[in-house]
Amino acid sequence: MEKPDEGYGEWEELVGAALLGTDRRRGAGPAGSPESLLDAAAVHAVRRRAGLRPATAAARPGPAPRDPRPQPPEAARRRLAQLLAGRAGGSGGSGRGSAPDLTELLPQWLATAGRHGYRAPEALVPALLDAARARTDLRPEALALAGTRGLWLARLNPEWRFALRGGAGGAGELPEVTDTAGVERLWQEGLFAERVALLGAVRAHEPAAAQRLLATTWTTERAEDRLMFLDSLRQGLSDADEPFLEAALDDRSRNVRATAAELLSALTRSALAGRMAGRALACVGPHGVTPPAECDAGMLRDGVVERPPAGRGERAWWLGQLVESAPLSCWRERFGGLDAAQIVALPVAAGEGWAEELHAAWCRAAVRQRDARWSRALLGPPSASPAAGPGTASLAERAKLLETLPDGERAQWVAEFIRAHGLSEAFQLLGVCVVPWAGALGRAVVEALESAREAGSYPWSFSGVMGLAERCLDPAEAGLLEALTASAQDPPDASPGAAAYWSEAFQRLAATLRLRATMLAELTPA
Amino acid sequence: MTEQGVRWTAEQVLALAPDAASRKAGGRLGGAGPWSQIGGSASGSVWGLCKGSGSTPYRTVVDLAGPAYKCSCPSRKFPCKHALGLLLLWSAEGVGEPGEAPDWAAQWLAERTAKAARPAAAAGGPADAEGARRRAERRAARIGAGVTELEQRLSDLLRAGLAGQERAGHAGWEETAARMVDAQAPGLAGRVRELGTIPSCGPGWPARMLEEAALLHLLDRAWLGVEALPDGLAATVRSRVGLPASGEGEAVRDRWLVLAQYDSVSPDGRLTTRRIWLRGLGSGRPAMVLDFGPPGRPPGLALPVGLVLEAEVRFRPGSAGLRGDLGERFAAAAPCTEVPPGVSTGAALEAYGAALREDPWLESWPVVLGPVVPVPGELGWQLADAQGAYALPVPLTGAGSRSRGGLWQLAALSGGGPVTVFGECGHRGFTPLTAWRPDSIEPVPLV
Questions:
Q1: Domain end point (choices A249, A266, A283)
Q2: Which of residues 142-181 of A touch B (CB under 8 A)?
């Protein structure tokens, strides 16, 4: 603020005198004794404060673009404020209490609000940007909700710069895909992330146009950029991509070649898949397994990696790569019309020790080609012990196989798995099931938790599944839990106090489900 | 909408917890799990039964207007975890349509209404008047001695010069502050402690220190001549020195809009001060209501921003007529349906200047500013008049400054456009506390 002009000089003199001290300045200046100096300063201070005038305004920021989307209903706005405040650790929902853990509800709130097409309430945009900064998993949805107001703020605050990168949530930053000149310009001049986003948008609109765009600059791109562009083709991969990928098999970069080969092998009708089938069929048949004797130039060009990692035999390594890249459909004829389940069950190669290698390669092929029939065969019946299964005992790989099954079947399979083997091994498998969990799956989880309680263990041994259940159980299933929330007596051989902890844990689960139901209802437009 | 419909945030509820353990326990009871027969009335109360370890559930009822609590549990904590849990549940999920209170709750609520209607018994009788006068004289004498000592200290400071202060540290001032506490002049003690911190707070400190020393000197002189001052100024001087206000000023009945509420903790962490800003919608008069919480306990009075209370405020004499106490309430609180009119930056400073006539020690004055545009800046923020060339700076550090989070919230709300902002306008600038968007009557507290 500007100081009143009148007497300003005098004030400066007073400060000078005060700094120096009246002892050293006796008789000089406007103030002789300390008292008279203080008297004069007091008059000045009050006069200065009473006469303050506004300062000159700095350049005002330009207006934020209008966001035409509606705000969420009032109750939902209040809920979001609460969830964002809880994120900062305010209400302390962690631990073993029966209060719901609000942090984990935020992603769901954001996703649902996004589906309803809301914009964030303005006052919450800063908290939303902070949340997006702290948790990259929340970023796309938080930024989409923050919209143009979020981008406007991000330009003013360096801490939120991240929101301006990558184009995620930067609605309106990309040109229209039909605007040829705009697309061309951004493709030539844009930042890498903008170009990836552009490529995706053009590809979604017209795949051939995306290829043409890519071809214009392909030979001048850096190897790591070529790799990333190629990788972005994974989304919406189709037979139309084959010529481009086939050409990329002769790329200068080994990583680009390998990625092109991998994508081609997922296109089961491609020439590469056919070549791989020929090689694989020569090695594997009803009479046994004969791995390739050498890695020839053709195999190298088709992306086979010659040197095995430490501890693996060369020939087994080559065999695995051939089988995983061959279309699964080629095996039926080779094994005289048998189906996937029968082929997997054959004792072929078991005696020679190749079975494990072969089955693992089939698993990778089933995942890559998204082949539900082979996945089903390789998973085996859910009741069978994972170790005895035909495909793989690794839960991570089984989760990947499960992802190729239709939603309903996947939930059913996991439900039966839980009934047979309990919860301790089910965590990863539950992670690939569709949210909210199907009825049968939800009931299987609740029943398994109930058995765990009856077995007398502590609930925190199951905290992972509990947390997952809080996020994924259908809120309609809250009724199932009511009976379990009552405090029960500890069973005779249970850990001390376990029953009380369990009832608390079930209370929290039920409360979270109810809260989720309320939360989703609040977001429904009035 | 009724008050029962105006839910508080979880933070507002948890701020009522007497200690951390209650906060945690209350949080656990904030889910619907253990609760049954939850309900609320249109006049602003909520109740419910909470299942505990025994066979009979606890009966919990909260009068939101107080807020006041009643619970059948044996806890001596106040409010107990059940009351907190009930409030949390209400804040998160509401309690449905307003209804009739069950007998056990209705009885207590009726007692409260009856008690509120009875006039407060006159505190203290004339019998003790003589004793009170003697005590007041004794205290005045002690303060007088303290003031004289402080004047000596200030003289020494100016005689030796401020230049040495940067190295002197504030231990000497702490000691002087302690002497002022002994002299029963807590107001002086606070100012002395502030004075000691100035040399370490950056460029321009000598001018600030001279200013503060001069205002302290002014207060000393005013105290020594307090008998000759006009009544209002004398009352201001007494309260600035730290004497409790004697007698009551006028009582003003109005519809009071809650403009802001925030807490600050004393430097030693022992006292929480809650400041609540009100504005009479009829009279336009500002009022500041203070409430205090001892260590670890938040103040009991909580008024959500945006509510309007039809009530009487009894103003204390002095201090520019700002300080008031909430008296009788005549109706349940309701949400405000209008945005208070704002003034320009120039008018805001004029209002502060005018208030200094009544209280020269006043740091700031409550002002509704608008329409203004928040201007973020690397070196400092401003609130600029939507039309014209003028702006007020926003203090970013020191007493009265608020968190930057609140400022970004303000910027987000404005999006470069005009907003109405309530805050404290003083010699350091304008501290925003609450804001309204142009197209909304909903006040947004800037946290």
A1: A266
A2: 149, 152-153, 156-157
Chain A residues near residue B405 by CB distance under 8 angstroms: 126-127
Instruction: Judge whether B409 and A123 are in contact, CB under 8 Å.
Output: yes
Determine contact, residues A507/B31, Cβ cutoff 8 Å.
Answer: yes
Using CA atoms, how far apart are residues A473 and A510, in angstroms rounded to an integer?
10
Cis-peptide into A327, omega within 30 deg: no
B356 touching chain A per CB within 8 A = yes
CA distance B269 to B32: 35
B127/chain A closest Cα distance in angstroms: 43
CATH class name, domain B251-335:
mainly beta
Encoded tokens for A290: 């004969």
Q: Is the peptide bond before A436 cis (omega within 30 degrees of 0)?
A: yes
CA separation, residue B380 to residues A153, B376, B401 (Å)? 16, 7, 12
Query: A58 lies in a domain?
Result: no
- The CA distances from residue B206 to A387, B112, B213, in Å, are 79, 55, 10
A157–B31: do the CB atoms touch at under 8 Å?
Answer: no
Q: What is the mean pLDDT of each run of 10 residues along chain B (447 residues)?
A: 58 75 79 81 85 82 82 83 88 78 86 68 58 86 94 93 84 91 92 91 90 96 93 92 80 95 82 92 93 80 89 89 89 87 96 95 95 90 94 76 80 96 95 92 89
For chain A, how many structural domains are there in total? 4
Q: How many CB pairs under 8 A join A and B?
A: 224
- Closest Cβ–Cβ partner in A90, A97, A514 for B32: A514
List chain A residues with pLDDT less than 50: 2-8, 31, 88-96, 167-172
Within chain A, what is the greatest distance between any pair of CA atoms?
Answer: 119
Looking at the fold, whether A324 and A278 belong to one and the same domain comes out as yes
Residue ranges of the domains in chain B?
10-101, 135-241, 251-335, 345-445
B416 with A60: Cβ contact below 8 A: yes
Name chain A contacts of B206, Cβ cutoff 8 Å. 15, 18-19
pTM: 0.71
Q: What's the N-to-C CA distance of chain B in angstroms?
A: 25
**Interchain contact, A507 vs B159, CB within 8 Å:** no
* Chain B residues close to A515, C-beta within 8 Å: 31, 92-93
Q: Name the minimum distance, in Å, from the CA of B346 to any CA of chain A.
A: 6
| Closest CA relative to residue A113, chosen from A123, A101, A121 | A121
* Domain containing residue A315: 268-405
Cα separations (Å) of A448 from A112, A269, A442, A501, B355? Answer: 29, 44, 10, 16, 70
A304 shares its domain with A324: yes
Helix axes B129-160, B205-224, angle to 10 degrees: 140
pLDDT for the residue numbered A179: 83
Contact A510 B382 (CB under 8 A): no
Pick B28's closest partner by Cβ from A98, A124, A157: A98
Q: Is residue A44 part of a domain?
A: yes
